[in-house]
Amino acid sequence: MLDQDVVWVLGGSVAGLLAMWHLHGVDAAVRAAWRAGVVLTGVSAGWICWHVGGTTDSFGPDLRPVTNGTRPRPLLERCALRLRTAATALFQRLVADGTLPAGYATDDRAGVLYRGTEFVEAVSEYDGAAAYFVDSDGAVERRLDTRRL
C-alpha cells in the first residue's frame, strides 16, 4: 500500500472485508499507508472500513452496527453510511446510545474529505447528494454545505 497514491475500496460485505483485513494484518498496513499520506477512499463498505464503523446489512437483512473498522486516523472517530432512511435512523440511535461516536453520514454519491484528522469539506458527484454530521449530544443530524465536484 505504501507504493500507492490512492487506495479505493468498493462496496460489499464490510464485516467480511474487515474480518479478512484484521486476520491478514491489512489493518496495520492501512494505518501505515495513512501515516505516509496515501489517500484512503471508497464507497459503501469501502467508506465504512476506514472509520470506527457504521451501519451495515453484512450480518443479514436487518441493519446492524459494525464497530471494528480500521480507524487509521488516530484521533478521528467518524463513521456512517446513509443509503436508506433506516440506516440514518439506526446511525442516529447508535450515536445517541454511545455504540458509535459522533460522525459523518453521507447520501449515496457524496463523501467527506479529511486532511490528516481534520474534516475539510463535504463533496458530491450529483446535485442533491449531501453529507451530514450527527452530533453525539442528542444525535442531532446537521446537513453540511456540500460542494458538487
In words, what does this structure look like?
With 149 residues, the protein is of the alpha/beta class. It has a single domain, classed as Rossmann fold, CATH 3.40.50. Helices cover 25% and strands 28% of the residues. The protein has four helices and ten strands, in the order βααβαββαββββββ. Strands 5-8-9 form a three-stranded antiparallel sheet, covered by helices on one side. A three-stranded mixed sheet has the order 6-7-10, with no helix packed on it. A two-stranded parallel sheet has the order 1-2. The longest helix has 12 residues, at 85-96. It is globular and about 40 Å long. The relative contact order is 0.13. Residues 74-80 have low confidence and may be disordered.
Q: What's a quick, concise take on this entry?
A:
The chain contains 4 helices and 10 strands; from the N terminus they run βααβαββαββββββ. It is of the alpha/beta class.
Order of helices and strands: EHHEHEEHEEEEEE
Biggest sheet character: 3 strands, antiparallel
Distance between the amino and carboxyl termini:
26 Å
Shape: globular
Q: How many helices in DSSP terms? A: 4
Number of strands: 10
The CATH homologous superfamily name equals: Class I glutamine amidotransferase (GATase) domain
**Structural classification:** alpha/beta
The total number of structural domains is 1
List segments where confidence is low: pLDDT < 50 over at least 5 consecutive residues. Answer: 74-80
Percent of sequence in beta strands: 25-35%
Percentage of helical residues? 10-25%
Radius of gyration: 14 Å
CATH topology: Rossmann fold
| Strand arrangement, major sheet | 5-8-9
